[in-house]
Specification:
single chain, 254 residues, alpha/beta, Rossmann fold, 8 helices, globular, binds NADP nicotinamide-adenine-dinucleotide phosphate
Length: 254
């Protein structure tokens, strides 16, 4: 029996990295998947890959900071697959990084718009669809940055992602009585396009790997397995949780 048989999921940030691997894993576990991001070609490639493996997926390209896009994704899930059970709001950006006095207001607002407002808009439209089913699992991608660890130069990223944890806790309290679980996954350094800024020289890579107790980075597929846990009934008593999947970076002192 597959873990997500008969379920329907929206996965944002599905054109690469963690979202891409999670969409594939959800589909291989029996879920119908609506995949979302701005790059249409990558989404089409993902849908083809899922279908070739016998799964079901549809794509809609757009910007998660756009309210119409958030509602259209839910509409697509309902029209294509009859409802919605899982919302993985994962799309994110590093935003403008550097010393805080150098961060422009626009750079700050862009990070907030994608990482925090995008998460809010996703939830805003996913919740009513889940309420129709009387159950659901909402998952947000946050990070240890700005939560358990402060890094210089990450004001916009850290603040927006810590905001996602506040959003998650509020929603968990609001929706628990109605059968909807809400959690965040907090990956550590993971081998994706977004992480390249941190690991684009051997020295930087060695530094980032050394921050982790496990002394290596994660693969996106490893993070996807933890997302699957939060999406599935395996985590049926878990809600309001900021789940670290961070290779031990948060507790490392070595
Ligand atoms: N990699 C790490 O070390 C790490 C650690 C902790 C947390 N995270 C978080 O993990 C999540 C996934 O990132 P990743 O590491 O898998 O990097 P990635 O491969 O670069 O994926 C980022 C995804 O977000 C999408 N995206 C970005 N801006 C968007 C927008 N405005 N509208 C719609 N989609 C947008 C991108 O697609 P398009 O460009 O096609 O729109 C892409 O699919 C992010 O929220 C990130 O903050 C990553």
């Amino acid at each position: 029996m597959k873990t997500l048989n008969g379920k329907t999921a929206i996965v944002t940030g599905a054109s690469s990295g963690i979202g891409y691997e999670t969409a594939k894993l959800f589909a291989s576990e029996g879920a119908n998947v609506v995949v979302a991001a701005r790059r249409r070609n990558e989404l089409d490639r993902l849908v083809a890959e899922i279908e070739a493996a016998g799964g079901k997926a549809v794509a809609l390209a757009g910007d998660v900071a756009d309210e119409t896009y958030a509602s259209s994704l839910v509409e697509l899930a309902e029209n294509a697959f009859g409802g919605l059970d899982i919302g993985f709001n994962n799309a994110g950006t590093n935003g403008e990084m550097g010393p805080t006095p150098d961060i422009s207001l626009k750079g700050w607002q862009d990070a907030l718009n994608v990482n925090l407002t995008g998460a809010f808009l996703g939830a805003k439209y996913q919740i009513p669809a889940m309420l129709k089913r009387g159950a659901g699992s909402l998952i947000f991608t946050s990070t240890f940055v700005g939560y358990t660890v402060g890094f210089p130069g990450t004001a916009a990223y850290g603040a927006s992602k810590a905001g996602v944890i506040g959003l998650m806790k509020s929603l968990a309290a609001e929706l628990g009585p109605q059968g909807i679980r809400v959690n965040a996954i907090l990956p550590g350094g993971t081998e994706t396009a977004m992480a390249q800024a941190w690991i684009d020289t051997p020295e930087k890579r060695a530094f980032v790997e050394g921050l982790n107790v496990l002394k290596r980075l994660a693969s996106p597929a490893e993070i996807a397995r933890s997302v699957l846990y939060l999406a599935s009934d395996a985590s049926s008593f878990t809600t309001g949780s900021a789940m670290l999947v961070d290779g031990g970076v948060s507790i490392n002192r070595t």
